[in-house]
Amino acid sequence: MGMNVQETLASPLVWHPQTPQEAWQLKQTYGTESIYISGGTLLRTFWESGMAAMPQHFIDLSTIRGLRELRIGEAGFLIGSQATLQSCRTNMLLQRHFPMITEAIRTIAAPSIRQLATIGGNVACYIGDSIVALLGYDAEVIWFDGIAEQRSLLMNWLQTGQGAKHDDKRLLLQMVLPFEEMEQETISSDEADKLSSQMKRFGAYHKVGRREGFTPSVATICINGRLTGSGVIQHIRIAVGGGQTVPSRLDKLEKEITGAIVDNQLLQHAYERVLQLYEPREDLFASAEYRKSTAANLIAAELWKAVRDDT
Amino acid sequence: MSNKAVEEGVPYSLHCFINEGEESIKTAPSTRLLTILRDELKLTGTKRSCDIGRCGACMVLIDGKAVNSCLAMAYQCSGKHITSIEGVALQGIDYIQQAFLEEGGFQCGYCTPGMIVSVKALLDDNSEPTDDEIAEALSGNICRCTGYGGIWRAVKQAVERKRQLLAMEQKEELI
Ligand SMILES: Cc1cc2nc3c(=O)[nH]c(=O)nc-3n(C[C@H](O)[C@H](O)[C@H](O)COP(=O)(O)OP(=O)(O)OC[C@H]3O[C@@H](n4cnc5c(N)ncnc54)[C@H](O)[C@@H]3O)c2cc1C
Ligand code: FES
Ligand code: FES
Questions:
Q1: Residue B89: other Cβ atoms inside 10 A
Q2: Do A72 and A49 contact (CB within 8 A), yes or no?
Q3: A215: contact with B, CB 8 A cutoff
Q4: Residue A214 has what pLDDT?
Q5: How many domains does chain B have?
Q6: Which of A24, B12, B26, B163 could form an SS bridge with A5, CB 3.0 to 4.6 Å?
Q7: Are residues B146 and B77 part of one domain?
Q8: Are residues B99 and B161 in the same domain?
Q9: pLDDT > 50? residue A2
């Protein structure tokens, strides 16, 4: 353990754990009187707006060893939870292999905030804009449960953590982005060989806000797929989020359209299913209906672009 | 877990470098850098406005990177080199400030220190930014007077000056 300091009774104690175990132990000891803190940028907005009181113990995660790294590992591209958003935004490897993530980060706040804010903080708050792009790449998360490192799909991690919100004790360590293999979901290996040369990748990330830059999201979508030469969807991931909504994958829609040809009927179906499947939270700025139709339009438009660009 | 209670009750002292001077400041670890600069050190060139990272008036450099000083807490500044607008002008008026003066890059001037600090961070890192890169670098600096034309001209002039300065430096190296 590093330091534990205070000047006045009103000021918090800041703990600087060196390992996940130490951080975890501190959370056990101080419970709701404590909070994990990375860049502190989101927490600051809560404290300033009175949405949350500043707790007595800060558990500073930035001192945990090895969590700032971005690198290629055996399991895929690894992003440490303590990597700042700006270091992700400017990482050449991330930009080359997972461009929708660097694009998503470009739209998060401004560079000066991204120098402090971390990708771990963006994911652990459950509503960050990077999550939608991470879902589009089938990201997994590695987290610590007090005993061991656990690995799960980000999609599942979000679902189980949703209720817990800011009292959540799970400590997020890393994100893992798998390098995509040619998947054989719908075709045989012979066909796969034949088609791989004609296969077309498509993908897009969009964050629609009330103004062009530096804006909260009304709807954020990520779509990542492959089409065969004849316009059949061979693989697809569709993720949505925005505002106070915890992002999710529209996995039912993904299944329904995999193996189908992109035509007017499919576009209509996709549009309607987004309206049915997506359940955004409304706020003072946008109704749930408006958020749904924005997401549905963006998704249908991207599917249309994928085939249009193909012809 | 190590020496738990050892430091408990010990007042926090922030040790860092501000505008090239070494500082040890007794404060709470959660005190914002903005408060330390303005209230403790009377460096009032750094402006305070929204307090939540939205306006950019409080921008400073931390280890050469533009950061909102209303978001950075004392404990996060430990050992760091901090440059406020006063530090930018340490050797006299800086070429970016000169560009803002010549191009009318301010109206009331409240956002100007923050703008200049953001431009400095950008040009120290990337001497030939594209228009998109300039827009991204300044996206966190809001001007309440909203006349962005003069600011844009000032930044473009600063980019040109930076190019000339680098060319001169290269020439001197060759001689
Ligand atoms: C002006 C401004 C604009 C913003 N704009 C955007 C935007 O456009 N899009 C967007 O997505 N966000 C935005 N944000 C929100 C926020 O700053 C970012 O989401 C940021 O990535 C949070 O990271 P942080 O490291 O500062 O998190 P912190 O504030 O330190 O933490 C956020 C939450 O996550 C928890 N936490 C942090 N790290 C971990 C971990 N490793 N394991 C478990 N729990 C953890 C904390 O306990 C806390 O509950 C904005 C914030 C500001 C101030
Ligand atoms: S006062 Fe810091 S960004 Fe507005
Ligand atoms: S010049 Fe007045 S706020 Fe920008």
A1: 16
A2: no
A3: no
A4: 84
A5: 2
A6: B12
A7: no
A8: yes
A9: no
For residues B48 and B118, state if they share a domain.
Answer: no
- B51 and A86: CB-CB below 8 Å? no
What is the spatial distance between Cα A174 and Cα A243, in angstroms, rounded to a whole number?
24
Within an 8 Å CB–CB cutoff, is residue B11 touching chain A? yes
Q: Which of A180, A193, A200, A195 has its CA nearest to residue A307?
A: A200
Chain A residues touching B26 at Cβ < 8 A: 7
Residue B2 lies in a domain: no
Q: Of B61, B88, B115, which residue sits at a domain end?
A: B88
Whether B49 maps to a domain, the answer reads yes
Residue B40 in domain: yes
Tell me the nearest-neighbour CA distance from B27 into chain A, angstroms. 7
Whether residues B105 and B69 fall in one domain:
no
- The range of the structural domain enclosing residue B33 comes to 13-88
Beta strands A233-242; A245-249: pairing state: antiparallel
Q: What is the separation of C-alpha A130 from the centre of its chain, rounded to a whole number of angstroms?
A: 4
- List A residues 40-69 in contact with B (Cβ-Cβ < 8 A): 40-41, 44-45, 48-49, 54, 58, 60, 62
Judged by CB atoms closer than 8 Å, whether chains meet at B140 and A214 is answered as yes
C-alpha distances out from residue B106 to B43, B115, B155, Å: 20, 10, 12
Complex ipTM: 0.93
- The answer on B112 and B65 residing in a single domain is no
Q: What is the mean pLDDT of chain B?
A: 93
> How confident is the model over A229-244, as a mean pLDDT?
94
**CATH, residue B71:** 3.10.20.30
- The pLDDT value recorded for residue B3 is 32
**Same domain membership, residue B113 and residue B64:** no
Nearest Cα residue to A40 out of A23, A55, A28: A55
In what order do the strands lie in the sheet containing A70-73? A70-73, A76-80, A171-177, A140-144, A149-153
**B53 in contact with ligand 2, CB cutoff 6 A:** yes
DSSP state, A279? -
Residue pointed to by tokens 């877990």: B1
Pair (B44, B83) in one structural domain: yes
pTM: 0.93
Q: What CATH number corresponds to the domain at position B130?
A: 1.10.150.120
Would you say residue B1 lies in a domain?
no
